[in-house]
Design a protein that fits this description.
This protein has 282 residues and is mainly alpha-helical. Among the domains are: 107-209, no CATH class; 223-274, no CATH class. The protein has 11 helices and no strands. It has helices spanning 6-37, 40-77, 85-94, 98-101, 107-126, 140-151, 168-186, 192-208, 223-235, 244-259, 264-268. Helix 6 (140-151) packs parallel to helix 8. Residues 5-49 have low confidence and may be disordered. InterPro entries: DUF3435. Residues 29-42, 50-75 have a biased composition (Acidic residues). Residues 10-21 have a biased composition (Low complexity). Residues 1-83 are annotated as: Disordered.
Length: 282
């Protein structure tokens, strides 16, 4: 093997170093070329362009939705050919709320209310005190005068003789009917203070016109008393009936009377067809 001289070794070393530098330089040049081809500003510009296109598409779709909503609103507000706006405006102006807010009574009760109101008007026409016909001016004095005048009447409107009022209970019924007249005319009930004061007035008028009581005063029947009567009717034979069915019917009527004490016609109008039966299985 031949050894190289110092000059040859140095020259070969310089060549190797020069070759290494060329390799390194070529890599750096390649990196520079890549960096120049992929600039960051180009990526941002591309992204901004896509975002602008997406925003334009969303704005266009939103505008289309708003246009559709406007068309729907216009369709709802468009007048109907069969029912013009004047039809509903006329209903609004001519609607009678009193027809739906007034109290509903039976025909017999309505006749009593109308008759009492007619007598109220006749009283103040006879006394030549027209302002007192207004129910807003009702007072204890005017009520005392009216009922005193009504109890003193001996002739009806057509000149026929009137039977007259003989019992205290009838005067109490007149007062109850008048309260309904007042409520129908004003839409409000007579206050409790005036109602309590009228009890004294009615007792005084009953004594003045010699009204009598029918028998002794009836006592109140409470739920406990009703329960005792029902037990006695079922568990004993103190009361005899021609048929066992009558005992059960009386049992039913007594219980219904507890709910309809002031409406006897509700029991008198009860028929077998109103009874509904159902079978319950366990």
């Amino acid at each position: 093997m031949r050894r190289c001289s110092p000059i040859e070794c140095s020259s070969s070393a310089s060549e190797s170093s020069s070759g290494k530098s060329d390799y390194t330089r070529s890599d750096s040049d390649a990196d520079d070329d890549v960096e120049s081809d992929t600039d960051v500003t180009d990526v941002d510009a591309f992204t901004d362009k896509n975002d602008d296109e997406d925003n334009d598409d969303s704005e266009d779709s939103q505008d289309d939705d708003e246009d559709e909503d406007d068309e729907d609103d216009d369709a709802c507000l468009s007048p109907n050919e069969d029912l013009p706006p004047e039809y509903y405006l006329q209903q609004l102006e001519n609607f009678d709320e009193q027809e739906y807010t007034k109290q509903d009574y039976k025909d017999s009760t309505t006749r009593l209310i109308d008759r009492m109101e007619d007598q109220w008007n006749q009283c103040w026409t006879y006394l030549n005190k027209e302002p007192y016909r207004n129910f807003a001016t009702v007072s204890i004095a005017s009520l005392n005068t009216f009922f005193d005048w009504m109890l003193s009447q001996r002739r009806v409107k057509r000149g026929r003789r009137r039977r007259g009022t003989k019992h205290v209970s009838s005067l109490g019924t007149y007062w109850k009917v008048f309260r309904l007249v007042y409520e129908r005319a004003t839409g409000e009930k007579i206050d409790g203070k005036m109602n309590r004061s009228m009890r004294k007035v009615l007792r005084k008028l009953a004594k003045k016109h010699s009204l009598t009581k029918i028998g002794r005063e009836k006592t109140c029947m409470y739920v406990e008393d009703l329960g005792q009567v029902l037990r006695t009717n079922l568990a004993t034979t103190e009361k005899k009936y021609p048929h066992g069915r009558c005992r059960i019917q009386v049992q039913l009527f007594l219980q219904l009377a507890g709910f309809t004490a002031n409406r006897p016609q509700a029991i008198l109008g009860l028929r077998y067809r109103h009874i509904q039966c159902s079978a319950k299985t366990e």
